[in-house]
Structure formats: structure tokens, C-alpha cells
Amino acid sequence: MKVEYISSDDENVISLIVEDVTAPFVNAIRRIIITEVPVYACKELVVYENTSPLFDESIAHRVGLIPLKTPLDSDESSRMVTISLEATGPTTVYSADMVSDDEEVSPIDGGFPIIKLGPGQKLSFNAECCVGFGKDHARWQSGLASYKNYPIIKIDSKRCNLCGRCSTACPQNILQMTDDAINVVDVMMCTFCKSCMEACTSSNEETLIKVIPQDDKFIFKVESFGNMTAKDLLTTALKMIENKANSLNQQILG
Amino acid sequence: MKIDIISEDEKEMELLLIGENHTYANLLRSYLQKDEHVIFAAYNVAHPLLDHEKPRVKIKTDGTKTPRQAIADANKILLEGIESIKKTI
Questions:
Q1: Range of the domain at B68
Q2: In the prediction, which pLDDT does A204 show?
Q3: Which tens digits make up the pLDDT trace of A110-140?
Q4: To pair with A226 at 20 to 30 A between CA atoms, which of A112, A158, A204, B80?
């Protein structure tokens, strides 16, 4: 198996080109990332005072969806963390106003607005946060992961008459016309829309340009919500598959 | 993960992967099918609600290795793949 790492400036995004694997392998990593990586999120909200225009439930929902920084070694048995808030209007309450009793578990950003309070309105609650899994509720989802086959764009340059129709048809602008050939600028951007093939066939002849998905090569992208970096997210997911395989091995051979 | 073996002999094995879902069952199936000594490998989730955490895996081999050995070999290739991604990142 060959793996190529594509660096990015954002630590919450990671891209890989994985060669010589089957789709179920990349799909397993994808499914683990979106459903089974343990992260912290608010599970229950104890509201002491709420004279704001929003119902308790609506506020609970908004607080629940704020991603929390999660230490790497967290699992189901990790302790409950309480995040509390007390605010009096007139003001806009942001996630930065919430105080956590554990520095390692806190909102990833202070800029999430929770509610606008009018003059004299009050809000105070304790949010009880615990570790959970994306398969139970979206608030415990740690990120997004996706993959697509690596595209191969084949151009029959001997028979191509350089009409340029494919180049104008491509919505991603990855086919560039030069004086004597059509060049593919960035293959990774191809979405398999096949607009170029359609543009080429409009003359009722055989297509001279072909877009083929490569069966055993994938572009895999992980985007973390910020609970942990994308690299940590991927490592955690890989470790989980490893544990599954090892545990089955033990029982099968032991 | 716990396993529940339904039937087993030298060439054939049927087992339940308790606590797992399509994620691992499909992965295991794909690696088993790559093995030239395995003549049949498939999994099935009998009912999406009642059996959603116990996919049933069936393996038949040509007799050169036991189904248990086939699963161990499949896991070995899988672990090598994971190791190579870990090295890159």
C-alpha cells in the first residue's frame, strides 16, 4: 500500500492519496471517523434561571452543538465535566462566557453566539458534558471524512483536433488549451461530471477524451470540527480499527 | 468485540461479530475475498433493527487452511495497511 500525504495550512483538514487498497478499507476509516470516535459534548443542561425569549430546550440544543476540546485519551469512562454560565442582559451571550471546571474540556472557540438577552433578562445553567459517539447523536460527531476514486483523464492526442469544447465545458477548469495540446492542470479537482466527454461526443463520433475512476487509488479527506486536530482524529480512528482486528485475532486464535 | 460461533468445521465457519456493524464486517469480508484459498466469504445483517449489532459472517475455504487461519491472515494484511498510513502521517 502506498500513501501520500498532501499538506495543508489548516490543522483541521488533512488529505491523503491512498494507493493499492479496496474501497471497504477507506470506507471503514470514514465510517469510524463520523460515528465512533469518542468526543466530549454537552449531554444535559440544568437550567436554574431562564427569563430569555428562548425555551430551555432550544438553548440546550444550541449549547449541545458547540464542539468541545477533547483530550486524546478520552473514552466512555472519562469523567463528567460541568460547564456553567451566568449572564444578565442586555447582552449577547457567547460560548466564551461559559466557564468549564476542566481546562482541557472547553469550547473550541469563544465566538459561538448562544442567545441575545434583553434588559433585565437572565440566564444561568450548568451544562453536564460527557464523552459520546457520533452514532448516538450529531453533537458527538468529531468530523467529516470523505473519499473519491483517483481520476485518470485520457486524451487521444493524435486524433484530437483541438476544438476546445471540452476545455470550455469543464466546470472545474482543469483542462487547459495550449497551441498544440490539451493539458490537465489539476487532476485531483475532477468531479467525474463527464461534461468534457459529452462535449466531445456532440459531433457524434467516438469520445477522444475519457475520464476513468481508478479502482484501487483514492483521495481521502478528513475535516475535523475542532475537538482534536485532523491528524489526531485519523490516528484515533486507525487505532480503533486496529483494536477491532486485534480483538478478533485473539479470540479466533486464542 | 465478542464473537459467537454458530457452526465450524475444517473448511467452513459461520460466526456473529457481536457489537460490530457494517464498518468492520465489510472490511473483513473484502480482505477474506482477496485470499486465494477462500472460496466463499460474505456477511449479512439479518434485520436492520433487531440484529444491527451482530453481523453474521460466513467463510468457506478450499481446505489448505482453516477459516480461523484465513481470518487471522486477513487481519494481518489489514494491520499492515493501517501501519503504513500511520507512518506517513
A1: 2-88
A2: 63
A3: 999 999 999 999 999 999 999 999 999 999 9
A4: B80
CA distance to partner chain B, nearest, from residue A188 (Å): 20
Q: Which residues of A102-138 are buried (b: 16+ CB within 10 A; e: fewer)?
A: beebbbbeeebebbebeeebebebbbebbbbbbeeee
B79 in reach of chain A (CB within 8 A)? yes
Closest Cβ opposite residue B3 in set A23, A231, A251: A251
Domain containing B32 — which CATH number? Answer: 3.30.1360.10
* B44 close to A (CB below 8 A): no
Q: Is any Cβ of chain B less than 8 angstroms from the Cβ of A8?
A: no
The ranges assigned to domains in chain A are 2-36+144-221, 40-139
What is the mean pLDDT of the segment spanning A25-49? 94
For the segment A9-20, what is each residue's pLDDT rounded down to a tens digit? 899 999 999 999
- Nearest residue on chain B to A33, judged by CA atoms? B23
- Express each pLDDT in A68-115 by its tens digit: 999 998 888 888 999 999 999 899 999 999 999 988 999 999 999 999
Nearest-neighbour CA in chain A from B36: distance (Å)? 16
The answer to whether B33 contacts chain A (CB < 8 Å) is: no
> Which residues of chain A does B30 touch, with a Cβ-Cβ cutoff of 8 Å?
22-25
> Total domain count for chain B?
1
Q: Which CA distances in Å does A49 have to A65, A85, A100, A120, B73?
A: 21, 11, 19, 12, 60
Does A22 contact B30 at a Cβ distance shorter than 8 Å? yes
Q: What is the CATH number of domain A40-139?
A: 2.170.120.12
CB atoms within 10 A of CB A2: 11
C-beta atoms of A25 and B81 within 8 A: yes
8 Å CB contact between A191 and A172: yes
Closest CA–CA distance from residue B86 to any residue of chain A (Å):
7
Q: Does domain A2-36+144-221 have CATH number 3.40.50.300?
A: no
